């Protein structure tokens, strides 16, 4: 049956490329197959592990064939329906599945059910325990599983992924792998398979990540090491990447809750809208937020239509029997005059930004939904770029940034300053750390720490409203390597002007800020030159660029007159920079000039006529001598 197997595998591969969820059915208790050559074959539950129906069962439209996995066999037995006369089977299923769905609630933790550990940003799933180094091997790629970002993992034939069986009970769970219990002991970052230290507490945090804590070694949690050459699941104290827990889908209706839908859909409207939220899952409760935060069962329960009279993002989940749906999002723009700016982010084709603000579909991990905001520059759609939004439930968006994974460098950080998010309630936290939101983040330190300081773009001093808000400014994606003479001299002085002289009042309402450094060539005096001084390395040995120029772009909105002003500051990074060199008069340029130098379109979401006016001159709203 070699020819049939080869063809079927090829067809299966084609289907997997089309959809991550090829047709999977529960295994019949008995199955009798009559072939066109006259042969009849019968299989029983006692010798079948599972059956995969490719494209559907025999007789279904689009059905191709089936793969039968026999107990103890190293390969499947394959049948093409083109060579089959009939298939009969007992419809009473033996529950077995290679579909796993994300655990979103501790109510989904049930003894004797099967689970897998997943690092979603990879994505990667845990394989066997390495007996010599004692950690879970990282399994990646479609040869082992198919992953979708809506919380589904499908294991594939011959997979190296290891499935864990949950045992014990709350606060003393066990995780069994091939008959051995997962555990951790000592001070090394290990994950053993034995019998010692084998109980765990498991909780689900607000981001949906699984917090699996060793009961004996309480300082240790199962996390994922994404560093090149060290990709593994092991126990760590506080570093490394968070993971998700996935549970085997037993096919029950309770295991799947349909995501909510909005009516009308998110988009741009010229008047207030009455928005209703619904789900097709009978008996599910809907919870929603309107501040951009991720909804939980502690959020507002939906009870009736929501009136949207100003720009607003609504996020919602549906929950039934402790199981949560994926998050649904709709953004509403209420605009009497609209915006026809053809360079605006929502006009970017193929970038993950909607073609129109009326399109509620966002694809970049719920971050691109904010790209219509005035502080955003034009999105760069090059491969390897990511947008990241840091926010808190109490104070909204801390900042947004665009990250270049190829150069391991920040392209820009943008944020707003207003009376609420600039409150000063806490002190600086100095919580430098790698950013798990991007594919490749710098480590928390620089190898040449004596030469380069970790220079903030969104300053710590501008985000002191809460501890959480301040800690978010210390993600390494918000840093650029800076000579301390520049970071603590000219750059710090200019930031001080922003903080002390340009802090918005009730009249001026909002200051929109973009801060960045040059990680590519620049154009100065019609001449192209390098925007990079040299390179350095971070604490894990990754190569980082050292920018030659730093800049800030400002858009100031005056509420009383409904008008805008804008200008930019440009500095060259030198080892001799000090605060005496930091004057607005000598460092300011227009936004048009900044765009010519960098090739980036700033404040692209303004209407065309306003953008053209405010970007043409360096209108400076403080006439003092600084």
The mean pLDDT is 79
Tell me the radius of gyration: 28 Å
Tally of alpha and pi helices: 6
Low-confidence stretches: 1-27, 91-96, 336-340, 354-367
Measured by DSSP, the beta-strand proportion falls in: 35-45%
- How many β-strand runs? 45
What characteristic shape results from the CA principal axes? Answer: globular
CA-CA gap between termini = 83 Å
Sheet with most strands? 13 strands, antiparallel
What does this 3D model show about the protein?
- β19 (200-204) and β20 (210-214) form a beta hairpin.
- Helix content is 10%, strand content 37%.
- The protein has 626 residues and is mainly beta.
- Mean pLDDT is 79; it is low at 1-27, 91-96, 336-340 and 354-367.
């Amino acid at each position: 049956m070699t020819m049939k197997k080869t063809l079927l595998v090829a067809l299966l591969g084609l289907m997997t490329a089309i959809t991550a969820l090829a047709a999977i059915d529960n295994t019949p208790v008995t199955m009798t197959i009559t072939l066109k050559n006259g042969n009849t074959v019968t299989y029983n539950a006692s010798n079948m592990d599972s059956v995969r129906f490719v494209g559907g069962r025999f007789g279904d439209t689009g059905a191709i064939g089936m793969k039968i996995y026999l107990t103890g066999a190293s390969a499947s037995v394959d049948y093409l329906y083109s060579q089959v006369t009939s298939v009969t089977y007992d419809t009473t299923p033996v529950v077995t599945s290679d579909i796993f769905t994300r655990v979103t609630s501790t109510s989904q933790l049930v003894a004797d059910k099967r689970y897998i550990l997943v690092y979603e940003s990879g994505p990667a799933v845990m394989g066997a325990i390495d007996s010599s180094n004692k950690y879970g091997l990282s399994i990646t790629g479609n040869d082992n599983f198919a992953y979708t970002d809506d919380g589904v993992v499908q294991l594939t034939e011959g997979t190296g992924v290891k499935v864990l069986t949950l045992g014990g009970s709350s606060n003393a769970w066990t995780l069994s792998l091939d008959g051995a219990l997962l555990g951790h002991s000592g001070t090394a970052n290990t994950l053993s398979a034995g019998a010692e230290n084998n109980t765990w507490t498991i909780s689900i945090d607000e981001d949906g990540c699984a917090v699996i804590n060793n009961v004996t070694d309480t300082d240790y949690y199962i996390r994922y090491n994404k560093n090149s050459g060290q990709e593994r699941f092991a126990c760590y104290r506080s570093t490394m990447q968070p993971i998700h827990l996935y549970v085997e889908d037993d096919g029950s209706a309770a295991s799947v809750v349909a995501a909510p839908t909005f009516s009308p859909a998110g988009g741009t409207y010229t008047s207030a809208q009455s928005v209703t939220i619904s789900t097709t899952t009978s008996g599910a409760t809907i919870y929603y937020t309107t501040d951009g935060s991720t909804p939980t069962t502690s959020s507002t329960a939906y009870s009736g239509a929501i009136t949207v009279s100003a720009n607003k993002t609504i996020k919602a989940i549906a929950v039934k029997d402790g199981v949560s749906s994926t998050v649904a999002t709709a953004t509403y723009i209420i605009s009497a005059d609209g915006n026809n700016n053809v360079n605006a982010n929502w006009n970017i084709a193929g970038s993950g930004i909607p073609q129109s603000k009326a399109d509620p579909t966002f694809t970049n991990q719920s971050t691109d939904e904010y790209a219509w905001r005035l502080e955003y520059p034009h999105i760069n759609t090059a491969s390897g770029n990511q947008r990241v939004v840091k926010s808190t439930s109490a104070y909204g968006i801390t900042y947004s940034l665009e990250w270049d994974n190829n150069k391991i460098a920040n392209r820009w950080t943008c944020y707003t300053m207003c009376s609420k998010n600039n409150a000063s309630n806490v002190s600086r936290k100095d919580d430098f750390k790698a950013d798990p939101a991007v594919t490749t983040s710098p480590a928390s330190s620089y190898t040449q720490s004596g030469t380069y300081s970790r220079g903030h773009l969104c300053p710590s001093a501008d985000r002191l409203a809460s501890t959480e808000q301040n800690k978010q400014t210390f993600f390494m994606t918000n840093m650029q390597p800076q000579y301390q003479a520049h970071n603590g001299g000219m750059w710090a002085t200019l930031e001080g002007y922003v903080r002390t002289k340009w802090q918005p009042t009730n009249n001026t309402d909002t200051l929109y800020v973009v801060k960045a450094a040059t990680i590519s060539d620049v154009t100065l005096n019609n001449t192209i030159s390098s925007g990079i001084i040299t390179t350095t390395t971070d604490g894990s040995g990754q190569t980082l660029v050292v920018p030659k120029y730093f800049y800030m772009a400002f858009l100031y909105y005056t509420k009383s007159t409904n008008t805008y002003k804008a200008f930019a500051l440009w500095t060259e990074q030198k080892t001799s920079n000090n605060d005496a060199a930091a004057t607005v008069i000598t460092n300011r340029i227009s936004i048009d000039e900044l765009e010519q130098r960098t090739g980036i379109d700033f404040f692209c979401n303004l209407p065309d006529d306003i953008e053209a006016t405010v970007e043409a001159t360096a209108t400076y709203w403080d006439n003092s001598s600084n």
